[in-house]
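User: Could you go from structure to sequence for me? I need the amino acid at each position, not a summary. Structure tokens:
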């Protein structure tokens, strides 16, 4: 199968490129610097896996993201205390200014074929 997989930092999407028979590229987008660094190490083992240190959104901008203890709970929104009490891993441990890009602005650089999977 050929195509380009566009996905988030979750390593499962990068692993799609290692499925038997898959011959396309995988492009992962991750705005958080620490998560990006981990993803970049994993992707370095596969020449068809590109990682981009940016988030995807409806406009090109710089935004402050609240970094949670577990990075998958990081958000641009303030979390209410009840949520954090119910799930302590979602407590904010910092913030980071990240770049947000529109996929259609990045698309020409990474698009290869008529098949694309977006997660």
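Assistant: Here is the amino acid at each position, in order:
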């Amino acid at each position: 199968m050929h195509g380009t997989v566009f996905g988030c930092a979750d390593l499962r999407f990068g692993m799609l490129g290692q499925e038997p028979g898959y011959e396309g590229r995988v492009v992962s987008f991750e705005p958080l610097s620490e998560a990006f660094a981990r993803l970049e190490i994993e992707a370095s083992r596969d020449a068809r896996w590109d990682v981009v240190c940016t988030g995807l959104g409806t406009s090109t901008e710089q935004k402050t993201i609240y970094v949670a203890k577990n990075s998958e709970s990081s958000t641009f929104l303030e979390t209410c205390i009840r949520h954090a009490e119910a799930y302590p891993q979602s407590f904010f441990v910092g913030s980071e200014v990240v770049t947000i890009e529109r996929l259609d602005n990045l698309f020409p650089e990474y698009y290869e074929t008529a098949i694309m999977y977006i997660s």
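One structural detail worth keeping in mind: The chain has one domain: 4-118.
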